[in-house]
Amino acid sequence: MILEIADIRIHPGQNAAFEEAIQRGLNTVISKSPGYLRSSVRSGIETPERYVLMIEWATLEDHTVHFRGGPLFPQWREIVGPFFAQPPHVEHFNTLG
């Protein structure tokens, strides 16, 4: 299992619309991708325009090849991309133990 963490910054004042959009994108697009296991989103307290999206994938390639290189990625970005103040910072993590 691989954990993808995306650090997302949105434009000020867009929180409610972004929160609806990210949930819709997760439910209608990302959850249909091969290797998708589960996801969660956290909102910043000190920085309200900051969100952390965590997605568990079966393999790294499920995210980097199948999702990012497939037809679902443009659909995802169409839903959430307009809210981004800058490109999200994305990293992947292995599970230990």
UniProtKB/TrEMBL annotation:
Record bears the keyword Oxidoreductase: yes
Gene Ontology terms, MF aspect: monooxygenase activity
Keywords (A to Z) from UniProt: Monooxygenase, Oxidoreductase
InterPro entries attached to this UniProt entry: ABM_dom, Dimeric_a/b-barrel
Residue ranges constituting the ABM domain according to the UniProt record: 2-93
Protein name: Antibiotic biosynthesis monooxygenase family protein
Originating organism: Roseateles agri
